[in-house]
Amino acid sequence: MLQLKTRNALFLLMYAIPNTILSFGIVYIINNALAGKKGLLGADTGWLFLGLIICTYALNIFFQRQLNRYSFHLLYENEKRVFGKILQSSLPKLEKFGAKRFFTAVEDLRTFSFLPYAVTHTVNSLLMLVLCIIYMFSLSLIAAMVVILMISALAGAYLYVIRTMSKKVSILRGYNEQYFQYVDDVMKGFKELKLSFFRRENLMNKFLTPNRNNARDLDFKINYIFLSIGLVSQYGLYFIVGVVLFLLPFTGWLSAADIIAYVVMILFISGPINNLINLQQIFTRFRVANGRIKKFVSDFDMLDDAPQQATDDASAFSDLTFKDIHFNYHNDAGETMFSLGPVDLQVNNNETIFIIGGNGSGKSTFINLLTGLYKPTAGKIVLNGADGPHRIEELQSLIAAVFTDNHLFSQNYETFSLDGNPEYSSLLRLMQLDKVVGEDTEAAARRKFSKGQSKRMSLIFALLEKKPVIVLDEWAADQDPHFRKYFYETLLPQLKEQGKTVIAVTHDDAYFHLADRIVKFDKGVIVKDIRVSTEALHSEAIWS
Ligand SMILES: Nc1ncnc2c1ncn2[C@@H]1O[C@H](COP(=O)(O)OP(=O)(O)OP(=O)(O)O)[C@@H](O)[C@H]1O
Question: Which ranges carry the ABC transmembrane type-1 domain (predicted)?
Fold first, then answer.
């Protein structure tokens, strides 16, 4: 994700080289003025000095602007990319990694807002260091070697400590990821937590507090190590100044004026050196964040899983056949947790099929396969007599669904509008929601509904998609007895009359006689597939 392209590197150098030369010019003038040397300078030194300051300032302003623009572009583009990855991801991937991965990836991206600061300071500091060292060499080879040896020893000790830090920063990120999981539990399980003192206490004391304490201690340790090593380098430089001031004069390697130049240089480069040292902390965080974002992107990279193309408007549906379809759930160790299949089933146009079976028998898993959200591990899906790689996309263009955990979006992401839409108004009446919603406007539809009402709204939106196949997963479970009866006895027959094919997962055995077919799952396989007639219902012990 974070890669320095040649173009960017050249741009950096185009700025950094003149900037460093100009900045060095400033130091050079100060140095010579202090040491009483004329050097290369003449009577207009003051003007030159002013000119250098203005030029460096202008150069910095221009460059910082460009760099800021580039990094914010990078940041916000990557935010969009991460969002896109989630949208393209397959359902099994999302179920495996969970929403917390998304939040931490966004947080990791935010780390890169320090990028402009880090890059400019690093490049400037490095070049300045190089120029100062060259200058020191020009004054005395041996003295420069001594100073560089001492600086290298300091840098070596520093780098050694730094190498141990990446792992610690990574562990800290892991703690924070876990923390987001607890936040998610609090948000989603707020009511359950409110009801139980012990649950709250356990979450707080056994999970959240240890997590935060560990994170706090590690965060402190990381920062303390960086701080200490920063201080060592700062005071180490004073030590080097001491050596130059009090030992080098006895060696005869430097004149008195050059000693002043050396001290000025060392004091001057203490800034760049401290910058470089402090920046290591940011770079360590960059490295960790970059690695994690790369992992996120590769984890969610399942291009073959997600339909990328918009399909044509819903076409006609004639039949759908599942041939020897299999699907397995695996745990992290790769062991199979549940197997669905072999499933062989044909769904014909205009049928009303009820999918029944006990809890955990595989009904919802089948629905996820039927709607193309899960990809079969084996078998063939034949749509309208043909199979092939794009059948899933076509299938999805024919299906509108309301899932058990339905969600009403905060905005209208659909191709239809609700404002003054006569079809929407009539569906509101059909679902007996016209008095609840009030107006046929977007604003009125985006409000809080009761669970049963929200299911009705979801069904309205599904019907507005005008697709020939309607899939409902335990849709009526949240409806009151009156509306449930109305749904089975009035709404479903109406949908059939309109030519819709309805596949509904249900436990409502009182209404089984209203289906055309009943398909029963048990332990991941279809154990019954019966055409409904009153006699059949009486003779078959479907529920057994
Ligand atoms: N994401 C998942 N990862 C692993 N196992 C899963 C996952 N989803 C479901 N299962 C398992 O697969 C089996 C079938 O689940 P499924 O949700 O299809 O059952 P169901 O028939 O819809 O049940 P219910 O009537 O309770 O909704 C169950 O044993 C369940 O624990």
Answer: 9-285
What DSSP character marks residue 420? T
> Taking the CA of residue 268 as centre, how many other CA atoms within 13 Å lie in the half-sphere pointing to its CB?
26
What range defines the domain where residue 534 resides?
319-408+449-539
Q: ipTM higher than 0.85? A: yes
Q: What is the tens place of the pLDDT at every residue in 266-289?
A: 888 888 887 887 787 788 788 888
The listed range with the strongest mean pLDDT (1-15, 241-255, 280-294, 345-359) is 345-359
pLDDT at 104 over 50: yes
If asked whether residues 270 and 336 sit together in one domain, one would say: no
Instruction: Name the E strands within 82-172.
Output: none
Confidence label for 264 from pLDDT (cuts 50, 70 and 90)? confident
> Does 434 reside within a domain?
no
pLDDT, residue 251, reads 83
Cα distance between residue 486 and residue 482, in whole Å: 6
Question: Structural domain tally of the chain?
Answer: 2
Out of 355, 361, 478, 519, give the residue to mutate to test ligand 1, the one with the largest number of ligand atoms within 8 Å of its CB: 361
Q: Is 277 exposed, middle or buried (0-12, 13-18, 19+ CB in 10 A)?
A: buried
Protein residue whose Cα sits closest to atom 31 of ligand 1: 360
Q: In this structure, what CATH number is given to the domain that contains residue 473?
A: 3.40.50.300
Does one domain contain both 243 and 382?
no
Mutate to test the pocket of ligand 1, among 338, 354, 474 (most ligand atoms within 8 A of CB): 338
- Give the model confidence (pLDDT) of 398-429 as tens digits: 999 999 999 998 888 988 899 989 999 999 99
Task: Looking at the structure, tell me whether residues 325 and 190 fall in a common domain.
Answer: no
Dist. CA 544 → ligand 1 center (Å): 20
Residue with CA nearest ligand 1 atom 13? 360
Torsion of CA 56, 59, 64, 65, to 10 degrees: 140
> Which residue has its alpha carbon closest to ligand 1 atom 26?
359
Q: Which residues line ligand 1 (CB under 6 A)?
A: 95, 329, 337-338, 357, 359-365
161 and 245 part of one domain: yes
440 assigned to some structural domain: no
